[in-house]
Amino acid sequence: MKKLMIILSCLLTLSGCSKRSVEVKVDGHNGPISVKVSVDHSHIESIEYYNHQETLEVVQQAAETMIDAIIANQSLAVDVASGATVTCQAILKGCENALIQLGFHRNQLYQNNDNEYDEIRPSEKQYDVIIVGAGGAGLSAAVMAAREGASVAVLEKMSEPGGNTVRATAMYNCVDDKLQHPLGIYDSEEDFYNETYNGGYQKAKPELVRILTSQADEGKLFLEELGLQFDSVIDNCLAGKIARGHYSLAHNGTDYVQVLWQACNDLGVDFYLNTKANELIMAQDSVIGVEAYRKGETIEFYANNGVVLASGGFGQNVEMRMYYNRNLTGELLCSNAPGATGDGIIMASKIGASLINMEYIELYPMGDSYDGGLRNSIPNVINKGILVNQQGQRFVREDGARDVLSQAILDQKGSYAYSIVDDDFEIFADDRSYLQGLVLMGYVEKANSIDELAHLIDVDADILINTIDQYNQSVALQSDCLGRETLINAIDKPPFYANMKKPTIHHTLGGIEINEMAQVLNQDKQPINGLFAAGEVTGGIHGANRLGGNSFPDMIVFGRIAGKNAALNQ
Ligand code: ADP
Questions:
Q1: 480 CB contacts (<8 Å, ≥6 apart)?
Q2: Which one of 135, 215, 251, 315 is most buried, counting C-beta atoms within 10 A?
Q3: Ligand 1-lining residues (CB < 6 angstroms)
Q4: Backbone angles phi, psi at 379, to 5 degrees
Q5: Residue 202 pLDDT > 70, yes or no?
Q6: Ligand 1 centre and the CA of 162: distance in Å?
Q7: Using CA positions, which residue lies closest to atom 8 of ligand 1?
Q8: 14: left (phi > 0), else alpha (psi -120 to 50), else beta?
Q9: What does the mean pLDDT of the chain come to?
């Protein structure tokens, strides 16, 4: 690739034309698609697709995710989302044809670009703290480091911040007597600790779980101080025993990223977007910086005090996840952002960091069946509804742990399930309008009788009617043959709703091993000087199974610790 880039740069410079575009036509799922690729010298600047008849709501997210990944990696060697495979493959083909017309060689377009910038002399930048990744953990770390008076740079390989944080269902667990007690919910730090540690099958590091559960409330206060407004509702995660989940007003992660981003800007943090950290720079046994690539340039970022890895998990790296669990093939859906490719874990392990719990990769049982996302679910479906398979039968206690639900769904014919509720599904003020939106967009089926619903989702009507009758009896008796304990309401009030769900790869629970100071540990469990980590890039906090609502306090609590300690490190 590097030779190609030099030749291409020379040709383009000689012709005096650095920015160029080519438009091509390719065959998509429903007809032709126009694909336009623009380059600046040898850098792929933008990819657009238009004049097509593809089903926009199905392809848009998948196509944009793929295009972001191509631009970030400057390579066509990217995963194609399984939800819109034909369209994405077509756009990829269009990119290939256009880039060949622009002078690129086909084989080189599919290379892994790790060494592509080797021959360009690096420029250098110096800060007190360098942070890799602009998701929730990296941004929290940046705020705390800057508050300590450190000069801070955040490197983000995508064109915008947010990572998996903006894709999450965004529940924030913490004990909160003020909201819980009026609802008759009695909770404690000890209950929170026990539920987290035991829910993770006691595979987490107890001292990290203790920090998470005892500092989550402080993390929430920190967010509120920065301007994040929380809704007054308290929710429960899938299989959670005690409701302690909070939401921001918009019930999504974008709110969090916005306030953190604003705080970073107010504190003078420098952001380097489209900048991919590639390697940690060492001096003897200490980490002193990060080598990164940015638009055809190698930059060496030197850190006077510390480097924080906050680059997220590896859910989008099929090879890496299959290395740790061979069942997690590319056939499975994935809810993650394209940047979740395990870069930080790879960089840290190259310099001898200890990795922990790598084999524990969480599938979220209720992914959107077409692209693995988390957004288009019937609200409160676990507490208020049931799951049935293609035969119209229940097959698992719906209030079971995430891993149990995921495996049970994968074991059904077609590896999917329908979630079903009646008209009594609402808990929060905007649940009804949200569900109506999903019906209008075609994600959720709505019917006035169970019989009609069965026909819409193509299951045997008599069996489905019988399944729901039996479930309603369980609710009346408060005793369920599958062992379900959350038996709140019968499903008997029309209209009825159904939504197809598939397990989706969601959170990689293992990662870099840290201590209570968020220092990265080496193979002898000693801190590596100058290196800190926080968020999904780390392991040992959730153990083998994550309690829903815990990833947000994880990223905020450990992001804060990592940023502060990196700034104070000498
Ligand atoms: P967390 O919840 O732990 O903050 P996120 O997935 O929200 O994790 O954020 C991680 C961020 O790190 C993403 O925005 C991702 O694009 C970014 N990232 C991943 N690898 C790199 C890298 N090599 N260089 C710079 N940024 C990276």
A1: 397, 471, 474, 487
A2: 135
A3: 132-138, 155-158, 162-165, 276-277, 310-312, 337, 339-340, 343, 535-537, 555
A4: -60, 140
A5: yes
A6: 8
A7: 312
A8: alpha
A9: 90
Q: Give the type of residue at 458.
A: D
d(CA 382, CA 385): 6
Closest atom of ligand 1 to CA, residue 536: 3
The H-assigned helical ranges of 326-429 are 343-350, 381-384, 402-410
Distance CA 129, CA 532 (A): 10
- DSSP per-residue letters across 304-325: EEEEEE-----TT-HHHHHHH-
pLDDT digits (tens, 9 = 90+) for 413-456: 999 999 999 999 887 778 899 899 999 999 999 999 999 999 99
Question: Atom of ligand 1 at shortest distance to CA of 336?
Answer: 6
User: Would the pLDDT of 16 be above 80?
Assistant: no
pLDDT given at position 561: 98
Cα of 165 vs centre of ligand 1, distance in Å, is 9
CA distance 309 to 215: 21
Q: What percent of the chain has pLDDT over 90?
A: 71
Rounded to whole angstroms, what are the CA distances from 31 to 54, 90, 259, 432?
8, 10, 43, 36
Ligand 1 atom with the smallest distance to the CA of 551 is 2
| Nearest by Cα to 193 from 542, 558, 534 | 542
pLDDT at 111: 77
| Backbone phi and psi for residue 183, each to the nearest 5 degrees, phi listed first | -95, 5
Q: 383 exposed, middle or buried (CB, 10 Å; 0-12, 13-18, 19+)?
A: buried
Band of residue 121 on the pLDDT scale cut at 50, 70, 90: low
List the one residue out of 406, 389, 407, 386 whose CA is nearest residue 397: 386
Minimum CA distance residue for ligand 1 atom 20: 311
Mean pLDDT, to the nearest integer, of 307-316? Answer: 97
Given the structure tokens 């383009």, which residue do they identify?
12
Determine the distance separating the centroid of ligand 1 and the alpha carbon of 488, expressed in angstroms.
Answer: 39
**211-214 LR contacts (CB < 8 Å, sep 24+):** 211/516, 211/557, 211/558, 211/561, 212/541, 212/550, 212/553, 212/554, 212/557, 212/558, 213/189, 214/189
Residues 570 and 556: their CA atoms lie apart, in Å, by 23
pLDDT digits (tens, 9 = 90+) for 348-367: 999 999 999 999 999 999 99
Least confident window among 32-36, 128-132, 307-311, 479-483: 32-36
Q: Which atom of ligand 1 is nearest to the CA of 133?
A: 12
**Whether 552 contacts 136, CB under 8 Å:** yes
Residue 509 has pLDDT above 90, yes or no: yes
Report the residue among 140, 307, 311, 349 best suited for mutation to probe ligand 1: largest number of ligand atoms under 8 A from its CB.
Answer: 311
- Catalytic residue, chosen from 167, 244, 402, 560, is 402
Which residue has its alpha carbon closest to ligand 1 atom 16?
Answer: 339
CA distance 412 to 407: 9
